[in-house]
TrEMBL record:
A molecular function GO annotation: ATP binding
Organism listed in the record: Ruminococcoides intestinale
Occurrences of domain ABC transporter (ranges): 4-221
PANTHER family documented for this protein: ABC TRANSPORTER DOMAIN-CONTAINING PROTEIN, IMPORT ATP-BINDING PROTEIN
Protein name: ABC transporter ATP-binding protein
Length: 221
């Protein structure tokens, strides 16, 4: 069973703010976990530390049994590439690339994919699975917010990660698209991926297997 484990993780930023205070959490494959809590409570920091985008001040982050503090930069990048997919509130798409090209971006650093046509084929397949087949040639500026977020989800899936980490994925969407995105994330968790979603959107409660509340850096289980 693949897992992301946080053991007694604290994060103190350089300015002295303690954003995470002794947080322990295990995310398993096939599980949809929602972390809720007020703005400034440490939710984004939690996701960044769990996703190896930032390091913690103390404690352990263990991904698929690798204690990440023992990994050098290259191995860390490797774990991130192969095991983790990210989705953000503001989509973070490249506006100069078409939808399918955005989906291809993470494959460019993956030696598993040898040719551009192989990458494109996978990108088109992923676009289809998130319901975007008829939008693959569009640029982000030609897509609705919900469509852009689906491109971002397909991109997060490009290297077939074990886990999807999503930070306020519906923050810029209307309620109809909100539901579509949570539906999509739920589908991914039932298909075997571990899904960790940070949100202050109550709708997420209908999808999560577990709801955890973050308060002043403390994760209430
Ligand atoms: N890069 C940073 N440097 C200093 N303080 C930060 C940084 N990022 C976040 N913080 C602070 O850490 C706390 C938690 O922030 P954050 O994790 O973004 O919370 P949330 O996502 O729940 O709104 C806040 O007090 C915030 O101001
Ligand atoms: Mg945040």
């Amino acid at each position: 069973m693949k897992t992301i484990e946080l053991k007694n993780v604290s994060k103190i930023y350089k300015n002295g703010v303690k954003a995470l205070d002794n947080v322990s959490l295990t995310v398993k494959q096939g599980e949809f976990i929602a972390v809720m809590g007020q703005s400034g409570s440490g939710k984004s920091t939690l996701l960044q530390v769990a996703g190896l985008l930032d390091n913690c001040t103390s404690g352990q982050v263990i991904i698929n049994r690798n204690d990440v503090s023992s990994l050098n930069k290259n191995l860390l990048a490797d774990v991130r590439m192969k095991s983790l997919g990210f989705v953000f509130q503001s989509f973070h798409l490249n506006s100069h690339l078409r939808a399918y090209e955005n989906i291809m971006v993470p494959m460019l650093i993956n030696p598993e994919y040898k040719t551009k046509s192989e990458m494109k084929e996978r990108a088109l397949h992923l676009a289809e699975t998130v319901g975007l087949s008829n939008r693959i040639d569009h640029y982000p500026g030609e897509l609705s917010g919900g469509e852009q977020q689906r491109v971002a989800i397909a991109r997060a899936l490009s290297n077939n990660p074990d886990f999807i980490l999503a930070d306020e994925p519906t923050g810029n969407l209307d309620s109809k698209n909100e539901i579509a995105i949570f539906d999509e994330l739920k589908r991914l968790s039932t298909s075997g991926k571990g899904v960790l979603v940070v949100s202050h959107n109550d709708a997420v409660k209908d999808y999560a297997d577990r709801i955890l509340i973050m308060k002043d850096g403390v994760l209430e289980q």
